[in-house]
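dude i think i finally got it to work??
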Amino acid sequence: MIFSRLSFLNAASALSLLLVGDAAIRGAYAHGGHGGGGEQLPAGESRATPTITIEGHAGFENNLNEPGKHYAVDALFGYVFEWGLPNEGTFAIEATVGPAAVWNEAEHFWGTVHVEDEHAHEEEEEGHGHGGGTEYKRTDVKGYFAARYQPNDRLSFQLSWMPYFVTGKGEHYGEGLKNEVGVNVTYAFGDGDVDFALGDGLEDVIDGAFISLENRTGWEADSTYIGNYTDLWPGLGFSADQLNFTISGGPRFYSPGSYSGLSSRTDWGAEIQVEYPMTDKITMFAHWKPIYSSENWSDEGGKGWNHHAGTGVSFSF
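look at this
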């Protein structure tokens, strides 16, 4: 098929990585030591940890002829509930929700395609469209809900739901509730205890190696099925004294929804996350996720780089 006028909003899957809450529920299972609840819970014990996460983040769609940008500041409030299991296992549930102040464009599911219609010009008059401006748009509401089962210190399974409520005009698919769901399986090859400041060398990096298989599926505010993608990414987590790094990357297999009329493709991406505990209750963090699309979809572009980056602070009580 030939699509003469397509607009792309390939926003990074920010909800999958912008939340320290996401890192919290993963637990410290040997891939960089993300900690959500402190020390390992003995079998049969439980705890509930209130959390607050504040983050500023931005996305840049440089693969478009008319690059798109989004900026936001989030303030998320919630709880992490954890139960200790035998064999150093855990089961955890996380629930967070809060406001997202939006400048320019809001976050979108990866690979969203905007097929122009008779309302396209009207939408542009309402302030929608790719552009370099930083106009404040509105305050949306976002949430993050997840359940993680970790039978031991090597293997983890996670289900997550990331709702996002668009509170007003300015987005292509209108106002309303957007939904994203995810399934993740992570296997760690070692105990995750790699600290180069303590004398560990390259021969010890296997203790911080892991592989992650994750699928994400998204629906827009008008219930349009956007599509799904699967990341099969190996990675490495390590520390340098108090500073913790997690690096991963690999292929992204993306299948857009039938609304777009586009075929599946394979993108390539990576993620770098850095965390620094100011105290045992306060953690600063930053992340960067570049994704490369290798195909042009239309005269609007499509081939090139997308970036998502953010920084913030998380409090636990």
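The radius of gyration is 20 Å.
im so relieved honestly
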